[in-house]
Amino acid sequence: MDRIAIISDIHGNIPALEAVLADINERGIQNIYCLGDLIGKGPEGEKAIRIVRDCCRVIVKGNWDDFITRETNSSVLQWHQQQLSPHSRKFLESLPFSKDVIMSGRKVRLYHASAESLYVRIQPWDSLEQKLAMFQPSELTGFLWEEPDIVGYGDVHQAFVQSFLGKTLFNSGSVGNPLDSSGASYAILEGNYNIAEVSAIGIQLIRVPYNIEKAIEIARKMDMPQCDEYIQELTTGKYRGLN
């Protein structure tokens, strides 16, 4: 069977990215897809872009990848913009919205946040109606299929697999900024790639420990803005917006 490692939301955290890629390599998985948010929140966005470009066969655009290329009055966003080369900014602008694949006879759609937008956020506890909307085609996803059987996404930094009404929705979690655990997260999609005949298929969620102290040290040395909030998220797995 074929396996695709699905990573997302690296957010400039190189120690986490390196740990995840080492785990993927140890498992002998050669195909890696990235569901966006290479940069932002963490300090080393430029390096994350270079690594992901080298190792991933598919990269789709995340919300950070989108708004980081636009003019802003935010000093925090300006700091992250200054870390990127003009070449990297153009690369982020060129990223596609979604990727469709066939796996063991199932239609699989992969994108960052939702079929509607890079900025519409769907959490694992949201309503069935909201989750079913993730399977609807849109101008952004294109109309290759009326509906996919499986949708995989990132954005919310919460890893999960849920099945309902014959559909499966999964989130790969976050490599560099998980908000449901302090360990880096990614997913493995296993089946027969590009084969129309229905056969066995699997989705596995992987947690990888990494050197959080090293990630914190890098952020501090680079004098990254909102460093305390970033450290809180890395060490607790708790979103900075929660009390």
From TrEMBL:
GO terms for cellular component: cytoplasm. GO terms for molecular function: phosphatase activity. Transmembrane segments: none annotated. InterPro entries: Ap4A_hydrolase, Calcineurin-like_PHP_lpxH, Metallo-depent_PP-like, Pesterase_MJ0912. Pfam families: Metallophos_2. Residues 3-190 form the Calcineurin-like phosphoesterase domain. Belongs to the metallophosphoesterase superfamily. YfcE family. PANTHER family: BLL5683 PROTEIN (PTHR42850:SF2), METALLOPHOSPHOESTERASE (PTHR42850). This is Metallophosphoesterase.
